[in-house]
Sequence to fold (402 residues):
Amino acid sequence: MPDLERHAVVAGAGIGGLTAAVALHRRGWRVTVCERAPGPNAVGAGILLAPNALRAFDAIGFDAAIAAGPTAGPTAGPAAMGLRRPGGAWLNRTDGAALAARYGRAPLAVHRSALVAALAAALPDGAVRYAAAVTGVDDADGSPVVRTRAGDFGADLVLAADGIHSPLRRQYFPTHPGLRYSGETAWRTVLPAAAGADAGPAADVIETWGRGERFGVVPLADGRLYLFATAVVPEGYRPADPRAEFLRRFGTWHDPIPALLERIDPSAVLQHDLYDLAAPLPQYHRGRLAWLGDAAHAMTPNLGQGGCQAIEDAVVLAHLLETREVPAALAAYSAVRLARTDAIRVRSRRAGRIAALTHPLAVACRDLAVRAAPAGFALRALDDLFDGFTLPAPAVPAARAA
Fold:
């Protein structure tokens, strides 16, 4: 079957699903992205695109800086990244230029909705179908049919990028234990860019660790500030007054946190309990269906790699499909991606447990250990994350099945 006639249906118009659609479209596939939402979603928070994700985007010729806006400029990475204590003392701090020199790219922080919009704009008109939630996939004879609320689609390939609560994961892996609560909830919001004396902190990515609480500040490349906070609370905990909750937990922490709290619009705060998969999936494919991103390997955000790994998934899968028949490419995708993503999932959960310690003695020991680490330790600890993206060697070209 000619390349232009091969059809991929993607369930989910998030970062991973749209990256996969763009990667396949640029390799000659016809793509249909089915999204349950009624239209493009402007709600969301920030994402820090690490060097591994940026290199993955480079591999498909997509410039993520488009999502940063016209005022960002070519060096819109953070001035520094580091950890602080609530009183303001630094636990560690890494210069942004050192990050760029070591990994070839500085991290890029953008608004999720801007990145999603830029990816969608790279697809043909009509490729993204809104109000088209995927309700199931029939693949009994090797010719998948995707069932949606907007009609059915035949496909040569189906990609399940339908998120952390993936219905397709539940359909095809009914005995999998599913999600596991991490013990923490998270709040996220984005503040408008300030001006003059009220402009706030320098362009540092800062995370402050307390006792069972964290607060993060991420300057976005477009001048806005992405704020996040976490707390160890029972699953389902929802404060009646978010502003009072923030002031109670973080109001006495170091500058500029109190001033930032005053600028928060409670109606613009997102709250989500943090989950990851309780166990890895046995594989990331079944027949002509493959899972990617949170649907495949939901992880806590402690390493900032959830979206980055979804981007890697999408680019690796499209690369493998260039020289392999669909079933062989999906099998290779499982083999290549499962070990890396599950190792990061486990590492992220462990990092969260350390950051969320509540006992005063344990917290003191943690902070002492972080401060005592050699200057280059924080960078070396990132090597396997930021340098870990590679494209598999191409297979010998084979005739592709219809």
User: Anything to note?
Assistant: Residues 326-355 form the longest helix (30 residues).
